[in-house]
Known about the structure:
Layout: E1 8-12, E2 16-23, E3 35-42, H1 44-54, E4 60-66, H2 70-79, E5 82-88, E6 95-102, E7 109-114, E8 134-140, H3 147-163, E9 167-170, H4 174-180, H5 182-188, E10 194-195, H6 199-206, H7 211-218, E11 224-228, E12 234-238, E13 241-246, H8 259-272, H9 277-292
Amino acid sequence: MTTTTGGALLVVGDVVTDVVARYRGPLATGTDTASSIRLLPGGAGANVACWAAYSGCGDVRLLGRVGADAEWHGRELRAQGVRPLLAVDRSAPTGTVICLVDAGAAAERTFLTDSGASLRLDPGDWSDALLDGVARLHLSGYLLFSESSRALVAVALASARARGVPVSLDPASAGFLAELGVDRFLGLVEGVDVLLPSRDEACLLTGLDDVADAAAELSRHVPVVVAKQGADGALVARCGAVCARVPPCPASARDSTGAGDAFTGAFLAALVGGAAPEDAAARGCRAGALAVERVGGRPPGRGA
Length: 304
């Protein structure tokens, strides 16, 4: 991949251990279901950072919080070209997500999530110096789902505004968004310049059934909205209207875990390199297609 030179990307978000179980349904309740099970590094924030580095961003940094097994996660991040800035939590383990992946054609997945240390980030983990040399700040939406990490988001947003650093955010989880509440979410993301919801998240945040209408409506609150639609591509909306429909890239899906993170990482790498959001979204679709053909949420190893 071509390396971009527009400055660093700082991602703040979750680092977790993924337990990925691929099975052919239906699940046999109360007994055994044959599965292929792998233990992999994951987390939406960490995945985005790795895909941004894979997609050509030459300086990607990740601020996160993990348990005592930080060495393993740090090593995995460095191997992907990401500079880990990991706070070690002595009171909580690294977050763990069990990913149940239907091995059928759609490769749909269900998550069982124990956030562990990842949502225990707090303002004490932040320093304005983290933005030195940073061209763009990206926040994982999972940070909005605990009190301490919400406080960190507020501090990071204020720091970025003071420095003139643009900020993007991925809402992360329709299930958690429903618990948080739409009005509260929109208030928390005030000052964000790019929002990257999935189809379900965009519709939930607006109460609209059509994703194009939802993206357009959200762009009245956030300057640029990029709605990720998986196998249907992506939509880019500005100023209350959809301005681009980005077609999907063909793929043979094995595991959809992390596909949205791949899109976001490649999209952000393109933005840092100077691309317009419409062109960056096309890069995102290509990365998403590559991601669903792999098991787990991370890109191929460097040089692969």
